[in-house]
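Trying the structure run again after the queue cleared.
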Amino acid sequence: MLNEPKLNPYIALAIGVISVSTSAIMVKFSSAPSGIIAFYRILFSVLLMLPVFVFKYKHELKSIGKKDWILTAISGVFLALHFILWFESLNYTSVASSTVLVTLQPLFAFVGVYLFFKEKITGKAILSGLLAIAGSVIISWGDFKLSGMALWGDILALIACALVTAYLLFGQNVRKRLSLVTYTFLVYGISAFSLFVYVLIMKEPLGPYPAGDWVCFILLAIFPTLLGHTLFNWSLKWLSTTTISMAILFEPVGAAILAYYLLDENLIWTQIVGGIIVMIGISIFLLDERKAKQIAKQQNNIIKNSA
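Done. Tokens:
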């Protein structure tokens, strides 16, 4: 039986959602190019993790095989590309549209495991996918009516969503063999190096930037990157993956509220309706996935007991 946590896991989950909801807001506040924001966000995250990794986890490096290094490197590159495109999307479309479209990640993951691992498709999974796609179309249609550039921002957000899914798929097996700190540190380190190469190629200046930008870079590293995702991972000990995934669906809601008060961004009806439909679709998918896992677990237990 698990010991009672010192902090209510639902409170930790709420703090995590609020933390990740600030990401798009801080990107909007920064005047730096997208590649620079992404680079410094990940670089500062790596630097903050460095002491913990060096003193407690560096011994794990000896046990990492060639294949795991390759998969980790690929994951890091995909994560870097995700940040570049998502941050770039915020230059064209609203916080609400961009964050809602990025929450389509569970569906992209489902398509990935179907194509590469041949997992079965259920009727509810298809329904949830169609609902989420319909919601995305409504959002994009409304943004296109505002401006063609807003639609371009939506497209970038969708590609960014696919890239973060690839990052998770390539890294999931490595993560099982490494501690959270070691895996995260390595992926972020490779991602930071990839972003450094990108900004050099694109000739984006590493400085100087206003003090406000540096504050945004550091806050991006602390809150959405380290605090937000760390709390999600801590909550996994006490809450189901489905519960956490459902909670993350509130990120667009939190981001939209913050954008309304801090950036004066107003929501149009297509963003509201489309966003609600997307979240309903993802909710159906996540609940169906949880039910399928419970059935599979029960069947495995029956087989073990009868053996």
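The CA atoms of residues 86 and 157 lie 5 Å apart. Worth checking whether this holds up in the mutant runs.
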